Amino acid sequence: MKNILQYKKDFKPSIVVFLVALPLCLGIALASGAPLMSGILSGIIGGLVVGLISNSSTSVSGPAAGLTVIVLSAINTLGDFYIFTVAVFLAGLIQIALGFAKAGRIGGYFPSSVIKGMLAAIGIILILKQIPHALGFDSDFMGDEAFKQHDGGNTFSTLFKAMGAFELNAVIIALLCLVALFFWDTKKHSKNKFFEYIPAPLFVVAIGIFLNEVVFPNLLGTKLDGSHVVSLPVKGGFTSFLGELKFPDWSALTNVDVYKIAITLAIVGSLETMLSIEAVDKLDPQKNITNKDREFIAQGVGNMTAGLIGALPLTSVIVRSSANISSGAKSKASTILHGAWILIAVVFMHKILELIPLAALAAILIHVGFKLINPSLFKKLLKHGNVEFVPFVVTIVAILFTDLLVGIMIGMLVGFAFIILEAHRKSIIMVNEGNNYLIRFLKDVSFLNKPEMSKLLNDIPRDSNITIDGTNHVYVDNDIVLIIEDFIEAAEERGVRIEVLKSRTAVNPFFKGTQ
Amino acid sequence: MKTLKRHLLQNKAWAEGQVSMDPEFFDVMAQSQAPEILWIGCSDSRVPPDEVINTNPGNLFVHRNIANIVYPDDKNLLSVIEYAVKYLKVKYIVVCGHYGCGGVKAAMDGIDNPILSSWTKMVADLGLSGPKKMEFDELVENSVKKQVENLLTIPSITEAWKDSVYPKLVGWVYDMRTGRIKEVSEIDPETNL
Predict the structure, then answer these.
(1) Closest residue of B to A512, CA-based?
(2) Are the beta carbons of A358 and A23 closer than 8 angstroms?
């Protein structure tokens, strides 16, 4: 009973995710050079299969923008999509094995500043890349996340081209839709039944269709069609749908390339899933923590299913998940339902879907993008200091100008560098009383403190007594000990006397001993 | 968590941490002690001797009482000094007072509690001994000097001095406002009194 209630509560977010997912499933399939149906199938599996197995309450899975480049070149290498799906099936098997090997722990190693940077970057990218679609300039596929685009341009070149080649009809639809979406946000706590039960994106899609089918033809004598509206790969009906499910070409199991691609897909797909899950857990107002090993198994089963029926490989995806969370999803009922809606829509509502102008969908995605960029987050991280703020900003910029994984890697490197530098600041303290000097380590010291250590020792004047206290429980790297040893060797020459305080609990053997 | 339960957990973490740094730490600790210093300090919670001079287990032999007072007939203190000097052969006896000492303050202003006022009587008398009333900080310093001098009347120390320059007697005052220690007196067998 509780379950049924949950499905009723999560009905609204499931509709939102469905409307966000639809253009992304199609766009990613297009960009991957795969049959359009494979994107739709992947979306259905992401909801119905992964949704059922995963224990994340708000993550949504489906075809991933981050995999398009890999998929495109893999299909080229293998020569056929249904050879490629063998690799997808195997990638799923590998993910299940990883899940049982408890690989989920790698998810914990992403610094939170980098994850937050990734979310903001995706928000910015979503807005920048959807503006051309909102303007009716549909050269790139919907849902691209990389700087260098599938259409040959990049994020900014397409943006500028679109400014000069917009379609008035699209602009009107997009603007009205955006106004409606932001207006809806102001009614969040309204008791008005209309705002409470109708998901804003559904209303927005209806506006789009109404404008394009009724208002524009009568008023302007034109309408958006062709590449400016949703175009589905099937002709509707259940038999036609079943005809699209195709088994992989098992004879390709002897092809070494299939295994190489399977491994690549498993690794990259798993990384993207872990990033998405980390982000989703951060965004979730209920603060649920996803079991990441279980997620590996859910993704694995999802990808095996995808391989079996001819669908694109899938991962947990951030844009759809964040739309899910911001429209109030409380349980996985929402992601499961979204899969069901894709299935039902493609089989039974084929005609209506093909009326949806892309500009209306672009408006929905731009709205999702704004939700991801959270200005208060910038202020909060700035207060935490450079150790968090710099990696956050670097991650945003790096993702904006490369792609998700490369950007994350750059962000993490910068993050590590800052943490290491911060950890080594103010590590050595030296005090003196006349010609008596004491040097003590407050924190761990390593090769990064070599210049500081040398300078401290060299600045001590002749005829001094120096005590180096190694009794504190900190890590003293051998590089530092070498400097001390050299200094002790030259002590007589320099006219200084040195004593070293040792303790049984010191970390470096040099300082181990009785005081 | 209840305070004491938490401290017991802290103790467990400390013990495990020590062992992880040195598996034989407690075996060595359990065998014997050879501290160089006897610390006579105040009971005040803000003057932790091991912290302020960075000493480790095995370094300090400690006696603490309110206002770090040396009464030559205090059996508790006498036995501590006897053991420290005769058996541990400590090299230094440090009397460490501190500014802002509640015991000294009570002696200076008077306190309506017979037990406490009888204990701090020595400091109260000292405060009235001069030509004019001493300031708080001044009384703290003078009290420490006085306690160091009182050590000279304790037999185990004078006996030890017959054939050794140790223990040296030192008076310190810890400043809670800065964390720094000021030296106020130093006496050894060669000192001309």
Answers:
(1) B22
(2) yes
